[in-house]
Amino acid sequence: MAVAGVAGVAALLLVVAEFLPLIEVVVGTLATVQETVRGGANHGYTLGVLGTLGILMSLGAARGSRPAAGALAVIGVATLIIAVGVDLPDTRATGSLPQSIAYEDARAQPAVGFFVETLAGAALLAAGGALLVLSGRSRHEAAVGREHERESRRAEDSLWDAAPPAGGGGATA
Q1: pLDDT tens-digit readout, 115-143
Q2: Where are the domains of the chain?
Q3: What integer pLDDT is reported at residue 119 of this predicted model?
Q4: Helix axes 2-17, 112-162, angle to 10 degrees
Q5: How far is 154 from 146, CA to CA, in rounded Å?
Q6: Closest to 89 measured CA to CA, from 112, 108, 68, 69
Q7: Which residues touch 72 (CB under 8 Å, ≥6 apart)?
């Protein structure tokens, strides 16, 4: 299923984002990069663990597992909470940076890792939700199909019950 593939790629991107620059500390009007902070160093490699779980859950969701699809959505929500609650404030820091001692105008800004992790979290949430909806619909369709099959058998059985016996149907003396 293509949606599960999207979830798998998004989960892999979470693992990759841990090793990409998350925050760049820049100084001056030319925005000279003085330091970069990698994603894993900023939140203890939590997204790497979530990404690994996401890869496993995407495999389960591809096989039709509703709990795995739900877990993908939860991983997406957790990722977005970390990105917005932990990483985003750090990308907007100014006076609390260690470089502020040496450089008056040192400031932090988001780097590529922040955008990758945010995109991956949103994709996991969307894919998990879509897989939940799609697997619910296919279960409903299967239930409707089974009910239709039962009704067809009942109708066929009632036709057999109403038909006269084979061989003339007359009584023998």
Answers
A1: 999 999 999 999 999 999 988 765 555 55
A2: 2-159
A3: 97
A4: 160
A5: 12
A6: 108
A7: 7, 11, 54, 57, 58, 61, 124, 125, 127, 128, 131
Q: Which residue has the tokens 């989960």?
A: 11
What's the confidence (pLDDT) of residue 25?
84
For 2-159, CATH number out of 3.40.50, 3.30.460, 1.20.140, 3.30.2420 equals 1.20.140
- Of residues 165 and 47, more confidently modeled: 47
Is the Cβ–Cβ distance between 47 and 82 less than 8 Å? yes
What is the token pair recorded at 146? 């089974």
Rounded to an integer, what distance in angstroms lies between the CA atom of residue 38 and that of residue 133?
35
CA distances from 140 to 13, 133, 147 (A): 33, 11, 11
Over 80: is that where the pLDDT of 154 sits?
no
